[in-house]
Amino acid sequence: MESKHIVWSYIERKLAEKSIFNADTGCLVWRGAKSSRKSLVYGKLRVRLPTHHASKSHYVHRLAYMCKTQTEISHENRVSHLCNNSLCIAPGHVHLETLSVNVRRRTCFQFGVCLGHDSEPHCVSMYLFKNCTFIYVKQFNVHTNKQINR
Ligand SMILES: [Zn+2]
Ligand SMILES: [Zn+2]
After folding, report:
1. Ligand 2 centroid, distance to 45 Cα (angstroms)
2. Fewest 10 Å CB contacts: which of 15, 51, 106, 129?
3. Where are the domains positioned within the chain?
4. CA of 90 to the centre of ligand 1 (A)
5. CB–CB of 56/48 below 8 Å?
6. How far is the centre of ligand 1, averaged over its atoms, from the C-alpha of 94 (Å)?
7. Which residues, in sequence order, are bridge partners of residue 19?
């Protein structure tokens, strides 16, 4: 019988191989295969989970959460991003939470500041700020070298 731990370590290694760490945001950005769902792009990887008999394509942010907790989660369980970067698989940026909390994070992203989530962790503000700058640049067609240092 194989140890579950070996399977999680294998998946973790696969995730690490195909991602790049962004020191500015703390995000571990997936560079492997991707698929679009609604307006968001998610990373995907074909692996076999410890209790499964065959390999299957999984969203990498969900795999990252499963590796972190060493526990398999079902489809009803929603893994969201504290950093609002759908391609991020940093263990500290993926979090299991309800749809309503997840939706509220989009509001934080729009405002560029975390509005708080009761007992749930705060959004990762560094990335929010970066995105805020990006939206500003895009919206007002400001030269990309211009930073908003406020
Ligand atoms: Zn992140
Ligand atoms: Zn927030």
Report:
1. 28
2. 51
3. 4-101
4. 6
5. yes
6. 7
7. 30
For 4-101, CATH number out of 3.40.50, 3.90.75, 2.60.40, 1.20.1630 equals 3.90.75
CA of 56 to the centre of ligand 1 (A): 24
56/48 Cα distance (integer angstroms):
6
**Of residues 135 and 47, more confidently modeled:** 47
Interatomic CA distance for residues 21 and 19, integer angstroms: 7
Identify which ligand lies nearest to the alpha carbon of 22: 1
pTM of the model: 0.81
Neighbours of ion ligand 1 (CB under 5 A): 27, 83, 85, 88, 90, 93
pLDDT by residue (tens digit) across 83-105? 989 999 999 999 999 999 999 99
Ligand 1 mean position, distance from CA 97 (Å) = 16
3-state DSSP assignment of residue 22:
strand
Residue 84 has which token pair? 């609002």
Q: What is the DSSP letter of 2?
A: -
Looking at all shown ligands, the one closest to residue 118's CA atom is: 2
Q: State in Å, rounded, how far the first CA of the chain is from the last one.
A: 56
Burial group, residue 43, by CB count within 10 angstroms (0-12, 13-18, 19+): buried
